[in-house]
Amino acid sequence: MSRILLVDDEPNMLSALQRALRQSKPLAGAQIETFTNPFDALNRICVCEFDLVVSDFMMPEMSGGEFLQALKDVAPTTVRIMLSASTDFKTAMAAINDAHVFRFIPKPWQQSELEQNILQGLEERQRLLAEAGLGPSAQELEARRLEEEEPGLLHVKRTDDGSIIL
């Protein structure tokens, strides 16, 4: 089950974002937590591990870039996504370069684009964990995917000499 953290100083925006994720069938069952204050969100991250964080860029207490940079230092394998109403190229580049943001999504977002970016971010998280030796390898993830698609596919029966029993 995926754990997703949403951070935005506007409660209405947080509600809309949470609703959008809950309506997504592929993200059904994901645990979603929301915070309007980035400092509170950082405190939570120190206590609980998240797979992915989506943060607004413009917040009064701390910019999204600063928040995601601090997050990178505290939880380097957590995937970081930034939302922003700003279309300023410098804003996007600073976020990508300084905080190693995985995706930059403009507000208002498109439901399908948001969902696709979150799913890709969760895949990236698995890759980061495998790279760090903290999670399953790419081969193990592919084996799980194949087994989900075709149960029993990977269970091969063999004889004592190693021959496959059909």
From TrEMBL:
PROSITE patterns: RESPONSE_REGULATORY
Keyword Chloroplast annotated: no
UniProt keyword Transport present: no
Record SMART domains: REC
Single biological process term from Gene Ontology: phosphorelay signal transduction system
Gene3D superfamilies membership: 3.40.50.2300
Keywords recorded for this protein, A-Z: Phosphoprotein
CDD domains, A to Z: REC_HupR-like
The protein's name in its UniProt record: Response regulator
Native species: Duganella rivi
